[in-house]
Specification:
Elements (H helix, E strand, L loop, with lengths): L1 E8 L2 E10 L4 E8 L1 H53 L2 H8 L1
């Protein structure tokens, strides 16, 4: 019996090709690199990597925007705090009572 079987071995697309004598249950075979299936698997892998990279860029961009917003809010709060403490400073209230 002649047999051909495609599979992935250690991450590589291969084709086992050989024959087996059914009466003696022995035979000969070899593994060959399956270029066609390898190209398909490579394209799928590249597509997955591109989707992952795109998603990572989106997450990093959102994180950068969020951090910038947080910094602006902190600066605004600090300015408001300084303005409020300046308005209530003892020097200003003391000079007003003189």
């Amino acid at each position: 019996v002649h047999i051909r079987s495609n599979f992935i071995m250690n991450g590589v697309c291969v084709r086992w090709r050989g024959w087996i004598d059914l009466e003696r249950l022995d035979g000969v075979g070899c593994l060959e690199y399956d270029e066609e299936r390898g190209a398909i698997e490579d394209a799928i892998l590249r597509e997955q990597i591109e989707r992952y990279s795109s998603r990572m860029r989106e997450i990093e961009e959102r994180q950068r925007i969020y951090k910038a917003q947080q910094e602006r809010q902190a600066e605004h709060a600090e300015k408001q705090h300084k303005k409020h403490t300046t308005e209530l400073s003892p020097e200003r209230t003391g000079s007003a009572s003189n």
